[in-house]
Design goal:
The protein is an alpha/beta fold and 398 residues long. 35% of the residues lie in helices and 27% in strands. Helix 1 crosses helix 13. Bound molecules: NADPH dihydro-nicotinamide-adenine-dinucleotide phosphate (NDP). NADPH dihydro-nicotinamide-adenine-dinucleotide phosphate binds next to helix 1 and helix 13. The site of NADPH dihydro-nicotinamide-adenine-dinucleotide phosphate has 33 residues, from helix 1 and helix 13.
Length: 398
């Protein structure tokens, strides 16, 4: 962070892969948040992190974030002015409800998801816009990498590089190898729900649905090389269609190895990726929740993780009457992330943007009221902070 301005305490909810990375990075930069309240379902994880942090003061709390009253209780106890939600998308609405009642700002990295249906849409959160406006508070939605940095790359391009943007392809490549036959890089339940849903893209004023993994294309990723990427639906498509003027087409692509897809196919075929409850030994269980307990914890993957991620936006449009195309992107090394924070690059690239967004809100650089997506903020201060905080970005002309 550039300016040496200390911020008032914040409350971070969730001490998993992303939450712990956020805390460890904040500990390296004690002038931003010298004191953080950390609340999660398993208080042991919060206590363990508080012991690791030697430069900042961590106050651990046990919390059931599915219960809005419990969230309110911890907000009041912490006297936080900002709640950073790094728990799961299932908890977004209960946490937002508590923020409205306590009149404090809110930030997250993933849209609300009901447990029983994979939807990946912002409607539920956007419906709370007036409640946030009335209480003069801000809910900043989607401040991870994708959504998050990708949205800000698009806004930066609109502000500085184009008069009109025609098309955006968001490209997400993990060119790393963690050595496990099958593991997900963030919460397995959320990750598998996202990947197994139908694909969807926006073109010429209409949305088109595709079967999962139906469409693929080879992209040449900087510092990684050629990889097969699959068209998927991702929540930032919904907000960017609304917030980028004149956009004609937007698609989201993610790379998967053949080995990953083969494992996923088998797990799907035997029903283990389903979110419909089944009866097991007289109890109702959700197969995907059971599968999650069998898979490696994403926060445990960083040791021996080699390779890099490359995530960016391939954007075409017009500037001064001339057609142009650029790729704005970041590459992040798993080894370097592990060296710095004992985290893998997917947690790193999610947590650092959340930390930057939190600091910009806490310092009043980013402000506003209502539920706003990150691309509705000025992209410049965020783009300035990215390289300083460990996520340099580049622009490649095509
Ligand atoms: P993890 O499963 O590793 O961590 C989630 C944490 O939330 C755990 O500590 C968990 O507690 C806690 N938690 C879950 N339910 C509750 C509850 N009811 N009350 C309190 N705490 C709870 O997930 P990740 O860290 O991988 O992901 C965190 C978030 O980041 C997710 O929403 C994910 O979708 C998002 N994400 C966003 C990305 C982006 O680029 N925008 C990329 C990657 C992730 P416990 O330890 O007890 O299980």
């Amino acid at each position: 962070m550039k300016k040496n301005q200390t911020c008032s305490p914040i409350l971070v909810i969730g001490a998993g892969a992303v939450g712990s990375t956020f805390i460890k990075k904040a500990n390296l930069l004690p002038s931003i948040f010298p004191s953080i309240h950390l609340a999660s379902r398993s208080v042991d994880k919060c206590i363990a992190l508080s012991k690791q942090c030697t430069s900042i003061h961590i106050v651990p709390h046990q919390l059931d974030a599915d219960n809005s009253n419990d969230v309110l209780r911890i907000i009041e106890k912490s006297k936080a002015s900002l709640v950073v939600n790094l728990a799961l998308p299932y908890q977004d609405l209960t946490i937002m409800d508590a923020c409205i009642r306590a009149k404090v700002n809110y930030l997250d990295t993933a849209n609300y998801e009901p447990k029983d249906e994979a939807k990946f849409c912002y409607e539920w959160q956007w419906d709370l816009h007036q409640s946030f406006v009335k209480n003069n508070i801000l809910a900043l939605l989607g401040c991870g990498f994708d959504p998050g940095v990708t949205n800000i790359f698009c806004k930066y391009a609109e502000k500085h590089l184009f008069d009109v943007i025609d098309t955006i392809d968001i490209l997400d490549c993990n060119g790393g190898d963690h050595g496990h036959p099958f593991a997900t890089n963030f919460n397995p339940e959320i990750n598998i729900r996202e990947i197994t849903q139908n694909g969807k893209y926006y073109s010429n004023n209409k949305w088109t649905e595709t079967k999962p993994m139906e469409i693929s294309q080879v992209f040449d990723f900087p510092e990684i090389g050629k990889r097969n990427a699959y068209l998927m639906y991702h929540e930032e498509l919904q907000s960017l269609v609304k917030n980028i003027n004149g956009l004609k087409e937007i698609r989201f692509w993610m790379t998967f190895s053949d080995e990953y897809l083969n494992h996923l196919k088998v797990l799907q075929n035997v029903g283990l990726t389903s979110i419909k409850p089944i009866s097991f030994k007289g109890k109702s269980i959700v197969p995907l929740e059971f599968l999650k307990t069998c898979l490696p914890d994403p926060s445990s993957l960083s040791e021996n993780y080699s390779g890099k991620t490359c995530i960016g936006c391939l954007i075409s449009g017009t500037k001064n009457g001339i057609k142009k195309k650029v790729f704005i992107y970041n590459t992040c090394s798993h080894e370097e992330s592990h060296k710095e924070l004992s985290s893998q690059a997917v947690s790193y690239t999610t947590a650092i943007p959340a930390l930057i967004g939190s600091a910009l809100i806490a310092r009043g650089v980013w402000s506003g009221t209502g539920t706003l997506n990150v691309e509705e903020m000025d992209p410049d201060p965020f783009m300035e902070e990215l390289p300083i905080m460990g996520l340099p970005w580049k622009i490649k002309n095509y």
